[in-house]
Design goal:
Organism: Rhodophyticola porphyridii
Helix content: 55-70%
Pfam families: EF-hand_5, EF-hand_7
Structural class: mainly alpha
Protein name: Calcium-binding protein
Radius of gyration: 22 Å
Distance between the termini: 45 Å
Low-confidence stretches: 5-32
Shape: extended
Number of helices: 6
Keywords: Signal
GO molecular function: calcium ion binding
Largest sheet: none
Strand content: under 5%
Number of strands: 0
């Protein structure tokens, strides 16, 4: 693949991922997720209880461009596009290590590797309860018991299928 095609594929992938971001940012396995900056309505670097309570209304008001108390199709599309653009900008800021305005496959892979490394490290630290740098059979079984409890005793972590 030519360098130009690689950049094009990277940009298309970034846009596709960013397009999904607003939906993913709004709901997740544990309910709504929002950016800190969106909830900090007065931009003081802190989120008060009132700001947390007024967040939904502020988002509505921001999207209601003509202030008629309704969100038209065009207003919803414009608000969604603004969120996607902001998501793309954040993604470029985080992942575009060579600052060429595009995310290459190598940059995307490096970011995924960093996330996997952080996840594996956190998981290992949780399992290694005595902090000795190794997971004993007892620590492994304790974790397996916890996971089985979360999954209703089904197959999964630390359990044979046979």
């Amino acid at each position: 693949m030519s360098p130009k095609n690689t950049v094009t594929v990277g940009v298309v992938l970034a846009l596709a991922l960013a397009a999904a971001a607003p939906v993913a940012a709004q709901t997740g396995p544990r309910g709504p997720h929002f950016l800190f900056e969106e909830m900090d309505l007065n931009n003081d670097g802190e989120v008060s209880l009132d700001e947390m309570r007024n967040h939904r209304g502020a988002r509505f008001d921001q999207a209601d461009a003509d202030n008629d108390g309704n969100l038209s199709r065009d207003e919803m599309i414009a608000a969604g596009q603004a969120r996607v653009a902001a998501g793309v900008d954040r993604m470029l800021e985080r992942l575009d290590s060579d600052e060429d305005g595009a995310i290459s496959r190598a940059e995307m892979d490096a970011a995924a590797d960093r996330r996997a490394e952080r996840f594996q490290t956190r998981m290992f630290e949780r399992l290694d309860r005595d902090g000795n740098g190794a997971i004993s059979a007892e620590e492994f079984e304790d974790a397996a018991d916890v996971m089985r409890g979360h999954r209703g005793g089904g197959y999964g972590f630390g359990r044979d299928r046979g």
